């Protein structure tokens, strides 16, 4: 686990004095100009009129304009390797990602990336190839040898009382039961700086909880898409009565990282993606467990049209000011009403 030190932030006075982080997740970027996708369900999905390869950029530009953020985190499935497979080009990820990064770079904001399960799924590039993302302009993780690393961010030249420590983890690739490559960090976590952890696949501890805020829509979406196995698909009311609809798309392997977070007492909140129909916020053992908001405007966002999203695509903002954390969702239309929540 690498410590990359401190990243000074651009002091944007319009942000009200606090540190603001923007989380983009599950963008599922397709090759530019892609007109259709032959999806794994054995059918061709046309991009027009319901999907777009550039709608995600418009959402990002709106969020950057409205929320006045200082740092951007891309939490996996930013690329979707599957439609790139036929291209046979190991560097094809670069122009697709650069189009998304352009507004961030124009704004002069530092950013970083952690992979999801689809960034290298059936792609012509390897997962290791994606470490080259850290060489792109503006990346705060430049020089990192692994997707697992940490840094502090703040307005000072060094970490101070207004700084945040950010932890980034690779939650595994696309396999039936991905190995979550987390390590026990209890002894490594800093004693003072509040910590936020970012990864793609939710931890098992996200499961079985009632949301404090937001939508937990994985079960309903899976039911619409025909993804719920028998006999549960026949008795959805029973599933809900038993609380099984509180399931999350986590690995069956528990890495123990959540227990490490609890022991450390330093992680205030975690942020993931993966379950597109979820933007819920939970709490367990004093730690807020948060989903981002899916940013994608391509077919995987809604299971190729079989399960329309319960909300508009967008991005999550996390704000730290005067020792308090708050979060809300930004969409193309601006801050989404009733999404602001205090993580306190």
TrEMBL record:
Classification via Gene3D superfamilies: 3.60.21.10
Gene Ontology, cellular component aspect: cytoplasm
Every Calcineurin-like phosphoesterase domain range: 20-277
InterPro entries to which the protein is assigned, alphabetical: Calcineurin-like_PHP, Metallo-depent_PP-like
GO molecular function: hydrolase activity, acting on ester bonds
Pfam families for this protein: Metallophos
Matching PANTHER family: PHOSPHATASE DCR2-RELATED-RELATED (PTHR32440)
Protein name: Calcineurin-like phosphoesterase domain-containing protein
């Amino acid at each position: 686990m690498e410590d990359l030190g401190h990243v000074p932030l651009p002091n944007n006075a319009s942000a009200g004095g606090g540190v603001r982080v923007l989380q983009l997740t599950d963008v599922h970027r397709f090759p530019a100009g892609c007109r259709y996708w032959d999806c794994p369900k054995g059918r061709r999905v046309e991009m027009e009129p319901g999907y777009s390869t550039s709608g995600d950029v418009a959402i990002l530009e709106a969020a950057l304009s409205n929320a006045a953020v200082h740092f951007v985190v891309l939490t996996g499935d930013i690329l979707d390797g599957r439609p790139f497979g036929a291209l046979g080009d190991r560097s094809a990820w670069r122009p697709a990602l650069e189009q998304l990064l352009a507004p961030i770079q124009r704004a002069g904001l530092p950013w970083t990336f952690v992979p999801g399960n689809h960034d290298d799924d059936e792609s012509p590039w390897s997962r290791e190839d994606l470490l080259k993302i850290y060489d792109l302009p503006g990346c705060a993780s430049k020089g990192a040898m692994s997707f697992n690393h940490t840094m502090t961010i703040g307005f000072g030249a060094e970490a101070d009382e207004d700084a945040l420590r950010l932890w980034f983890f690779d939650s595994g690739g696309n396999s039936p039961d991905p190995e979550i490559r987390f390590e026990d960090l209890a002894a490594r976590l800093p004693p003072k700086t509040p910590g936020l952890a970012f990864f793609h696949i939710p931890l098992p501890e996200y499961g079985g909880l009632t949301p404090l805020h937001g939508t937990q829509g994985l079960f309903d979406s899976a039911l619409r898409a025909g993804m719920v196995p028998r006999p549960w698909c026949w008795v959805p009311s029973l599933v809900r009565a038993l609380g099984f609809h509180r399931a999350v798309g986590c690995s069956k392997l528990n890495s123990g990282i959540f227990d490490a977070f609890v022991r450390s007492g330093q992680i205030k909140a975690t942020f993931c993606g993966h379950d597109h129909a979820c933007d819920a916020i939970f709490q367990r053992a004093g730690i807020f467990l948060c989903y981002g908001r899916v940013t994608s405007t391509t077919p995987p966002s809604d299971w190729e049209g079989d399960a329309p999203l319960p909300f508009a695509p967008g991005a999550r903002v996390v704000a730290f000011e005067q020792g308090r954390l708050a979060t809300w969702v930004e969409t193309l239309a601006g801050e989404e009403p009733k999404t602001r929540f205090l993580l306190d």
